[in-house]
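sorry for the late reply, my laptop died twice this morning and i had to redo everyting from scratch. anyway the thing you sent over, i finally got around to it. pasting the sequence first so we're on the same page, its 224 residues, then the predicted structure underneath. double check i copied it right bc i was rushing
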Amino acid sequence: MAYPTIRLCAFRLKSDLLPQEFFGLNFPDDAKQEIRRLTAKRDNKAIEQASLPVKSLYGALTLAPGLIYIGKLSPKPGEFWLYSPHKLPQKPLSAILSYWIDTEFPEEPSNKRKVGITAQERQLAMSYLSAEKLVWKRKEVSYPKQFTTYPNGTAKLSGNDFILLPHLLAKELTKPGLTFEVDGEKLQFYRTIPSSGQGAELISWHQSVLAGNQNQKRRKRIFR
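ok and here's the structure:
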């Protein structure tokens, strides 16, 4: 049985929820300037008109396990570009970013309207994204038993809260051995990478025989 519509539900934080630790990382400013310069050269534009190729960057970052959120390259004060519950190793992350630069700025573009970028120029950009330049910052947040609210009753949350609370909920729902009974069958949820790189997304599936079809089909339930 498929559920083509969104079903809403609400959750309440545990009263004894311990302070939560997370790590944040920002995109180095020097790297932004250098990659913007490469983009301007490649696209034959003025540097003021060039924007960073974030779509391919976010696609590359889906290869980095452990990220819970991929935000804007220039986040608001107090917020970060990348979020993780752990301090991810910088060397593999730097390797992913170097691969992204190599792919995004080839020496011989397939699009003849674009200008090639030399290996030396790519190496310079990569140097700004070396492991030493990728600095994780540890943060700790505590949640009260009751949030302060706006006049309309909406809880006052910071930008980080909208990132961390879905992660906490997803962590609870994907605990090992935790199952749910739906339509008389047991389901277990697993963490998956959100297609947008933001929020939390869980997936569950089981084998079921559809009416009139003897072939086994996979049926998925996605929780966002």
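Residues 209-219 have pLDDT under 50 and may be disordered.
thats about all i looked at so far, will dig more tmrw
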